[in-house]
């Protein structure tokens, strides 16, 4: 076990280790599909390196960030990126309030400022959905300086010692753009693949402990077929999303499997041919 992780945290980590299929079931519910991935990411966080999680939608990036937050008992502030994200969304904004009978201007701190001051985790979801001109304001936060001069107040903020940054991206999706090199170079990057095999079965059984084994096997088989078609380039990556599979599983405990997959997986895709292919695959398993 690496000495970079404090002893008490290493002991907690050791209690979560499961040698079966080398899977790691973390306190926040994340299951690591790759040996050493979980601890390697923890070491990056302990070293105060901004961490970038790269992977398809539904691969568990947000669940991983939540698990890190629970592991360190460190609150997490989330930023959901979009083309509308601006400096105020990140840093905060000024507002007029009445205080002791007087009208005053007060600054309401945003997630970046709060996380920096309190020593919390800042989670930036879908960072490549933001406009490239918005994010350079974070450059000094993400590099060795770990500081920020708030343009709205003039305050110079030095990050708390425990402050950490985790970002996530879905590469190649509609509405995303490549991260510029100056931003990308401030992160250490980890690829987060989909779960498969016994690890996927573990998370299904953990979330649906009373589910019939035949239903679990059926959903596993359908998911395996979907992943094969994704690999063949016939389906978009989100067709094999673990999140979507779990949604389908939840529905399938109450309605026929075919309709559950249609609502939770097929209907999420825009391409009618891909929707049709998914339902044809389901029909090979559902008689």
Automatic annotation (TrEMBL):
<feature type="domain" description="AAA+ ATPase">
    <location>
        <begin position="47"/>
        <end position="198"/>
    </location>
</feature>
<dbReference type="GO" id="GO:0016887">
    <property type="term" value="F:ATP hydrolysis activity"/>
</dbReference>
<dbReference type="GO" id="GO:0005524">
    <property type="term" value="F:ATP binding"/>
</dbReference>
<protein>
    <recommendedName>
        <fullName>AAA+ ATPase domain-containing protein</fullName>
    </recommendedName>
</protein>
<dbReference type="Pfam" id="PF07728">
    <property type="entry name" value="AAA_5"/>
</dbReference>
<dbReference type="InterPro" id="IPR011704">
    <property type="entry name" value="ATPase_dyneun-rel_AAA"/>
</dbReference>
<dbReference type="InterPro" id="IPR027417">
    <property type="entry name" value="P-loop_NTPase"/>
</dbReference>
<dbReference type="InterPro" id="IPR003593">
    <property type="entry name" value="AAA+_ATPase"/>
</dbReference>
<dbReference type="InterPro" id="IPR050764">
    <property type="entry name" value="CbbQ/NirQ/NorQ/GpvN"/>
</dbReference>
């Amino acid at each position: 076990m690496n000495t970079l992780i404090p002893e008490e945290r290493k002991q907690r980590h050791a209690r979560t280790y499961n040698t079966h299929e080398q899977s790691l079931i973390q306190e926040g519910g994340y299951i690591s599909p790759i040996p050493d991935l979980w601890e390697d990411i923890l070491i990056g966080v302990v070293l105060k390196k901004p961490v970038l999680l790269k992977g398809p939608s539904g691969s568990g990036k947000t669940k991983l960030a939540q698990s890190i937050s629970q592991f360190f008992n460190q609150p997490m502030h989330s930023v959901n990126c979009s083309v509308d994200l601006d400096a105020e969304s990140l840093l905060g904004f000024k507002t007029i309030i009445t205080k002791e009978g007087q009208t005053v201007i007060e600054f309401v701190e945003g997630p970046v400022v709060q996380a920096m001051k309190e020593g919390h985790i800042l989670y930036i979801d879908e960072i490549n959905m933001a406009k490239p001109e918005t994010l350079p304001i974070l450059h000094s936060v993400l590099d060795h300086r770990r500081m920020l001069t708030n343009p709205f107040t003039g305050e110079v903020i030095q990050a708390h010692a425990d402050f950490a940054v985790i970002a996530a991206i879905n590469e190649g999706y509609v509405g995303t753009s490549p991260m510029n090199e100056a931003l990308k170079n401030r992160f250490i990057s980890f690829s987060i693949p989909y779960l498969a095999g016994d690890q996927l079965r573990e998370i299904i059984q953990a979330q649906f402990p009373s589910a019939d084994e035949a239903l679990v096997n059926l959903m596993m088989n359908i998911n395996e077929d979907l992943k094969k078609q994704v690999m063949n380039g016939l389906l978009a990556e989100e067709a094999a999303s673990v999140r979507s599979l779990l949604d389908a599983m939840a529905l399938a405990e109450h309605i026929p499997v075919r309709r559950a997959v249609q609502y939770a997986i097929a209907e999420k895709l825009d391409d009618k041919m891909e929707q049709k292919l998914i339902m044809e695959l389901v029909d090979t398993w559902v008689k």
